[in-house]
Amino acid sequence: MGMIGGGEGSFIGAIHRAAIGLDGLIELAAGAFSSNPDTALISGQNLFLNNERIYSSFESMIKTEASLPKSKRIDFVSIVTPNHIHFEPAKLALEHGFHVVIEKPFTFTLDEALHLRTLAKEKNLLLCVTHTYSGYPLVKEARSRVANGCLGKIRKIYVEYPQGWLSTPLELTGNKQASWRTNPNTSGKGGALGDIGTHAAHLAQYISGLKITAVCADVQILVPNRQLDDDIAVLLKFQNEASGVLVASQIATGEENNLKIKIYGEAGGLEWRQHEPNSLTHISLDKPTQIIRSGSNFTNILSPSALHACRTPSGHPEGYIEAFANIYKNFALTLRATLNKEEPNPIWLDFPNADDGVFGKVFFGFPPWRMPFGGHQQVCKSPLLCKLPYFHLLPKPLYKFMLKTFGEMNSTVLALMEVRETKLSIASFQAMIRKSELTIIKETLYLINPNYDIKFGLRPQVLPAFLNIPFFKDFFTTAYYGIAMRKDAPV
Fold it and tell me: For the chain, how long is the longest CA-to-CA vector?
């Protein structure tokens, strides 16, 4: 394996290296650990790598390793950089014939995610995304029980991921992890949404076996002057009409890493908590509550996939590192079979792949640039600005000046300026969807936004047909609601 990122000061790089060592299947042979050559060298030397396999850039590592004989070069790269340095090294690695493991979120944009997925398929290469929590044995057991019909038809899913580490403006203190995660230039458009919300969404889909088909999200910035969201609440719809709730927050003061999920069906429910990962609660209509425990000795209780993920007998706790290692183990076993031109065991294929990465990028919003309120009626605190139509169409300097004059936070000003820059119309949005792997299955245009009932006391009203024509609908629509799903998704 060759690692990109993960040098001195990295949290996740050390986790990946610990995980690959558990099963003896993977050896760290090379690395480009930092964009700073000195840091890269020191990081590699501290890991006892030979100097000639320590690289100052991911470009030099990939190109040099590709020139080596197959028996000596790395087999795959693991990318553990901040979000903005995911796409380019992954693309270059795939182009040079290397399999790829990549941290979430998959890429910066949906287009990048789709490009990597297509490239991996064209090159017949493995592409793994490290959604860690699917690696826990009892998460796999929960998935198996749902798939076997133990709960009946799924009705409701609750998934919650509260953290409290960003309850204060930690990014202003020089904290490296907080700084890049709250900076849109390095993290992307999503803060808590991209950092932990994607984990929660993946876990809900992984256990239930159902794809999310529609979302309605409340995305907030609660710490003053922060640039990216730190608190989200999302209503979910799944393929079988099950509904769900996803909450992810990094300002839940006092919380550590308290991921939890509850799934309810017609015949019972399951609950799993990351703080108690070796226990799974199974409740039923007419049976006592069961507490299922992990352990390699429970051969008559646990499913094959859960047993495959257990390393120790019951009573010997396994946790986060082991869950990470299970993803690497399945990836490595599949890769070894691929290199040997053998058919991999189906259990080995149980690791998050490019499809999971692409899904993580299909949370998107519709910036209503030409609409009467340009989005500011929902985010501005000023009583005047939130009711003043079309003022976002003023020249950019004047628009920005008004926002600041009326006391809007810097994060609000930044977000609204980005909305203005998109100049996205309803027609161009629909065209963008048509060019993607999504299809719009339902859409509604409103003359009076449903949200105005609460904010302005106005009753919602659908856009009349005589206004639902090109150009006019852009200027009179105050809300566009659509449901989009993948074109190849089962109905």
Answer: 72
